[in-house]
Amino acid sequence: MIKDIAKPGEFQKETIYLLYLFLIFLGVIFIKAAWISDDSYITFRTVDNFVNGFGLRWNIAERVQAYTHPLWMFLISFFYYFTGEIYYTVTILSLCLSLLSVYLVGRWLTVNIYSLFIIFSIFVVSKAFVDYSTSGLENPLSYLLLSIFFMIFFKSPLNSKNLIFLYVISSLAMFNRMDTILLYVFPLMYATYAARKKESLGIVKILKKVVIGFIPIICWMIFSLIYYGSFFPNTYYAKLNTGVNGKQLIYQGILYLVDSITRDTITIVVIGFIFLVTLKSGEWKKMAAAFGIFLYILYIVKIGGDFMSGRFLSLPLFAAAIILSRTEVKRSTALTLSILFLLIGCSVRHPTIFYNVKDSAPPKSRTGIVDERGYYFPTTGLITGSRNHRLPNHKKVREGKKLKEKGIKLYEAYMIGFSGFYAGPHTHIVDRMALADPLLSHLHIDKNREWRIGHFRRTIPNGYIKTLETGKNHIENPKIRELYNIIKVITRDNVFSLKRLKLIVKFNLGCYRHLTNLSDYR
To answer: Which of the residue ranges 11-25, 294-308, 341-355, 377-391 would you say has the lowest mean pLDDT?
Structure first.
């Protein structure tokens, strides 16, 4: 039998001690699993440039947002300013935020000791959750924001005062990664409806609270438009402006879910199970949270998922665990579910509980989806480091250091994280995947070229490299040459030049769309 109790003061001293034991055990698993991805170093290069006075840029010659998580980038920058070291700074920060998030759920959201057992049986065996509790990506901060949001949503009265707090946290979550707002949409709708009904709030008052609450993301988007020339990061265009048929992306998104079933069964099982729990409970709060998860899953499928197995499922899993934490179950039911979840989690090929220093995974698969942690762990795993094995130890790190030593000014690359960071600010790197290139990201891939999700390699237009070398436009294709002239003004001219600001407005209104959808280029 399942019912919600949500009684204050439910936690006893013995339960808190048990929570601390769980956190220690989970911390050991996090440390064993800790690693850093190449993608995270794309952000770290911007962090390094920002801290060292070159601005929020990837290549210092142009203003391009090559990161998807501004709040995470600023948080890293703050600590990096004091430490001057990136690998251990980000690893420790990630571990602390992830454990803090679990603590908040365990301490303030679980309704009794039995639900505590259930959520910890999920956290310790979910590969998606454990793998992306480090990695250098924004997931740990997203966990923290989710846990704080649901602490207020489930535990506090839904009045006008708490409504603003919910809007602010949702805004920060969007500031951290824009698409995660989908997880908050339905809970926000329910909270707004409940507060309006309780206090008879008018539409105008609600809109004022929305504006006040969303000030962080509003300010960022205004800054982004003025500084970068776009509301969205360059990676948005690089991955979603590809010319690839939408049906193919949906099929790839389905493959992403299937991949998780085989590699990380417990994550999909728990996400699916939560819908049964919420329907059985009949509680609108839980159903609103579950609908947010469902909406986010639909989004993942629509965009084709990701090449990193489980990355986009870690937040839905965390949100599902929070919903379960609000459910009281009998001791026998809790024991059964905990054992079942542990068995499912340990039935996969590489269970998180048994992670070790010899972990590795092949770099490719037929679906284009890989165990990203398994691939990078031998060269970036925290426990693989030693006096003779400095971290990270990937071949692209050595490539970047050689570029810096030789003073290379221009370089083409397709894995730009490690090589870009260690090459230093004075090497201009042309990213063939277009994540950090403002021109290539607005061009479709060749129509006959094989693509891998998250890796849409562009053909470099004839004359583009010479253009970057000389500063004069030598691009042969007339439409691409015209497009580059516009982009050059937006990314390189004085921020407040009238000509630039006019081009930004016209570009974002789609006035130059005929230059970006090039059938002859494809």
So the answer is: 11-25
| Start-to-end Cα distance in the chain | 59
What is the domain count for the chain? 2
Residue type at position 337:
L
Mean pLDDT of 66-75: 98
Range of the domain at 412: 396-515
Instruction: Provide the 10 A C-beta neighbour count for residue 466.
Output: 12
Q: Which of 354, 376, 404 is the last residue of a domain?
A: 354
Cα 429 to Cα 395, 411, 416, 442: the distances in Å are: 17, 5, 8, 17
The structure tokens listed for 328 are 């009281």
Q: What is the pTM of this model?
A: 0.95
Assess whether 247 and 332 both reside in one domain.
Answer: yes
Residue 335 vs residue 280, higher pLDDT: 335
Q: Cα(78)–Cα(277) distance, rounded to whole angstroms? A: 41
Q: Among 196, 108, 118, which Cα is nearest to 156's?
A: 108
The DSSP output letter for 135 is B
pLDDT at residue number 504 = 97
Supply the DSSP symbol for 329. E
Q: In 3-state terms, what secondary structure has residue 3? A: strand
Sign of the CA dihedral with 80 first, then 82, 87, and 90 last:
negative
Say whether both 411 and 346 belong to one domain: no
Task: Identify the domain boundary among 288, 321, 354.
Answer: 354
Looking at the fold, whether 335 and 401 belong to one and the same domain comes out as no
481 phi, psi to nearest 5 deg: -65, -40
**322: in domain:** yes
| 150 phi, psi to nearest 5 deg | -75, -20
In DSSP terms, 430 is beta-bridged to 412
Of 109, 98, 193, 102, the residue nearest 138 (C-alpha): 98
Same domain, 154 and 254: yes
The rounded distance, in Å, linking the Cα atoms of 126 and 319 is 13
With vertex at residue 278, the alpha carbon angle to CA 272 and CA 284, rounded to the nearest 5 degrees, is: 140
> What tens digit of pLDDT does each residue of 93-152 get?
999 999 999 999 999 999 888 999 999 999 999 999 999 999 999 999 999 999 999 999
Each residue of 127-141: pLDDT tens digit?
A: 999 999 999 999 999
Instruction: Using pLDDT thresholds of 50, 70 and 90, give the confidence band for residue 6.
Output: very low
